[in-house]
Amino acid sequence: MAATEPASPARPSDESLLAHVRLASVPGVGGLARKRLLARFGTPQAVFAAGPQELADVDRIGARLVQAIQRTAESRIAEETIDLCHRRDVAMLLEGAAGYPRLLAQIDDPPGVLFVRGHLDPCDALAVAVVGARHATAYGRRVAGQLAGALARAGYTVVSGLARGIDQAAHRGAIEAGGRTIAVLGSGVLCVYPPEHTDLAVEVTRHGAVISEAPPLGAPVPGAFPSRNRIVSGLSLGTVVVEAAERSGALITARLAGEQGREVFAVPGPIDSRMSRGCHCLIRDGAKLVESIDDILEELGPLFEPSVAADGREIHAPAELRLDEVERTVLAAVDSRLAAAGDGTGSVAVDDLVADGDLAVSRVLAAIGALEMRRLVRRLPGNRLARR
């Protein structure tokens, strides 16, 4: 399956797009406020058609936010934003539309609009976030780059926040390994923060995408960064925290990952470093301790739904990215037999797998053993196999 092209920008006459962009442009309307408004009114169009009292009746929508909604409704900010996106090659992805990241759509409060510089591909469903302290140590930066590079070489997209320190090292590690990476901004995609990472943002767009729920020229505001963390974790199968102080924003991302049902990992550090305290707290609370990429890959279970790897293969579990050629051949034979089976057993005979190809029995059995250890298949009575 070929990677999809970036979503074509919708025309300014598209009223649905206009309303979504207009709602995304209201100062103070983040993911939770948007969710409450849509729960009450159904569509962004209906939100802007509502009167002041109707808006004020929505839980936690105060007078200031009501005024902001009304001011935005009377402005041309949506039309201007869409025109800017056309001119600056920024794609707009609406929740529920083709091209919107499937993992992100499954969180409680997904962005209504994603503004995208670069390309989001189907293989980005196989993503792991690598996050951590802005004031990272040399140890933290080195480990973040190594883990990101190893993840990229294994076929994963590396997600981070383009911040100084660990985020920067993670993006560079993925790029240098020839892999894909996604940067999630707390500002607009045409207003990169921190400004010294403008060139890095350009590199990221060549190897993935820079995305934000803020309008493209949106300035960085403090409240936007905790909010963007839910997107970082929401795009990812798991989140790896490399270094974090006790009150680090990376811990917010880890908490959100847990709430979203995603895996949480933490890298231990020196006991006399304050940048280790957040990670050590996560480990005490049940996060998976990470010493190498194997600790990450072994923990990632089956995907919510099949995805597509960068080479076009359909992937049911991240462990499939680590298979050698013989193991891939045997697993493909299992899947082919299961797809063709009409007996409803959901299993295949080992003897049939041997008969399917030109591999020696010993190699087929060794591959089956490896697939079992990677928890991709399980043995059943009668010398049969089933997918996990």
Describe the structure.
This protein is of the alpha/beta class and 388 residues long. It folds into three domains: 1-87, 5' to 3' exonuclease, C-terminal subdomain (DNA polymerase, domain 1), CATH 1.10.150; 117-297, Rossmann fold (3-Layer(aba) Sandwich), CATH 3.40.50; 323-387, Winged helix-like DNA-binding domain superfamily/Winged helix DNA-binding domain (Arc Repressor Mutant, subunit A). It has 17 helices and 14 strands. The protein has helices spanning 15-24, 31-41, 44-49, 52-56, 63-73, 77-88, 102-105, 138-154, 166-176, 198-206, 224-234, 249-259, 277-284, 293-297, 325-340, 350-356, 361-373, and strands at residues 91-94, 113-118, 127-131, 157-160, 181-184, 208-212, 238-241, 263-266, 288-289, 307-308, 314-315, 348-349, 377-380, 384-387. The strands form three sheets. It has a nine-stranded mixed sheet with strand order 1-2-6-5-4-3-7-8-9. A three-stranded antiparallel sheet has the order 12-14-13. Strands 10-11 form a two-stranded antiparallel ribbon. It starts with 14 loop residues before the first helix and ends with a strand. The relative contact order is 0.10. Mean pLDDT is 90; it is low at 1-13.
Oligomer: single chain
CATH class of the largest domain: Alpha Beta
Low-confidence stretches: 1-13
| Strand order across the largest sheet | 1-2-6-5-4-3-7-8-9
The CATH topology label of the largest domain is Rossmann fold
How many domains, in number, for the residues?
A: 3
Strand composition percent: 5-15%
- Principal-axes shape call: globular
User: What percent of the residues sit in helical stretches (DSSP H or I)?
Assistant: 40-55%
Question: What value does the Rg take, in angstroms?
Answer: 23 Å
Largest sheet: 9 strands, mixed
